[in-house]
């Protein structure tokens, strides 16, 4: 499957973004190649298109499957392993967010909860715990909000995103019309 210049640019960029999403460049490139392809992609095609070893492809596919981003696909009459995206772009994005939360946010929240259970030994610890409480509360609120947004589904979320700054303007208007009922409360 020859890649077009447009696909090549996208695949290379997704490789660079892979590090920011929580996996390496090659895995990011593999994900992009599979997502952008019209037909199921064989492991050999991935190796050929990205000029990487079959061993590297095998390890990358295992990682993508552990993230639940790609899945094997049976092609009748073929003995090769083929792969397709494990859902829509929306579902893949949700899985990346979910995995990042599990790997980054959840352990941090767990540590913060443990630290906040300890009795402060001195005023320095008391001050630190107050700040840790702020961090904990912010992460809890952001996580809860993120889960609510994910539960909305793609159509409602797109509508919400289109509202964008309009939501902020509505909250400001509410504050003006209903003094004492600040939206920051």
Summarize the helices and strands and which ones pair or pack:
Layout: H1 5-21, H2 25-36, E1 41-42, H3 43-50, H4 54-66, E2 70-73, E3 82-85, H5 89-117, H6 123-152, H7 154-163, H8 165-177
Helix pairs in contact: 1-2, 2-4, 3-4, 5-6
Classification by helices and strands? mainly alpha
What is the H level of CATH, i.e. the homologous superfamily of the largest domain? Winged helix-like DNA-binding domain superfamily/Winged helix DNA-binding domain
Reading side by side through the largest sheet, how are the strands ordered? 1-3-2
Radius of gyration: 23 Å
At CATH level 3, the topology of the largest domain is Arc Repressor Mutant, subunit A
Mean pLDDT: 90
Instruction: Give the beta-strand count.
Output: 3
- What shape does the CA trace take? extended
GO molecular function: DNA binding; DNA-binding transcription factor activity
Family: Belongs to the GbsR family.
Protein name: HTH-type transcriptional regulator
Organism: Alteromonas aestuariivivens
What would you say this structure looks like, in words?
- The chain is mainly α.
- It folds into 2 domains: 5-85, Arc Repressor Mutant, subunit A; 89-152.
- It is built from 8 helices and 3 strands.
- The protein has a 3-stranded antiparallel sheet with strand order 1-3-2.
- Strand 2 (70-73) and strand 3 (82-85) form a beta hairpin.
- Helix 1 (5-21) crosses helix 2 (25-36), helix 3 packs across helix 4 (54-66) and helix 5 (89-117) runs antiparallel to helix 6 (123-152).
- The longest helix is centred in the last third of the chain and has 30 residues, at 123-152.
């Amino acid at each position: 499957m020859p890649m077009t210049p447009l696909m090549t640019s996208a695949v290379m960029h997704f490789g660079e973004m892979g590090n920011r999403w929580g996996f390496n460049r090659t895995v990011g490139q593999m994900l992009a190649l599979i997502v952008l392809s019209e037909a199921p992609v064989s492991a050999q095609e991935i190796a050929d298109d990205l000029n990487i070893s079959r061993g590297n492809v095998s390890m990358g596919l295992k990682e993508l499957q552990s993230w639940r981003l790609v899945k094997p696909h049976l092609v009748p009459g073929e003995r090769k392993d083929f792969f397709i995206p494990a859902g829509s772009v929306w579902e893949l994005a949700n899985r990346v967010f979910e995995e990042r939360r599990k790997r980054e946010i959840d352990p941090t929240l767990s540590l913060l909860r443990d630290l906040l259970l300890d009795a402060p030994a001195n005023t320095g610890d008391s001050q630190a715990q107050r700040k840790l409480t702020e961090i904990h509360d912010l992460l809890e609120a952001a996580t809860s909000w993120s889960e609510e947004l994910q539960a909305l589904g793609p159509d409602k979320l797109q509508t919400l995103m289109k509202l964008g700054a309009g939501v902020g303007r509505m909250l400001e208007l509410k504050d003006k019309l209903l003094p004492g009922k600040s939206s920051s409360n």
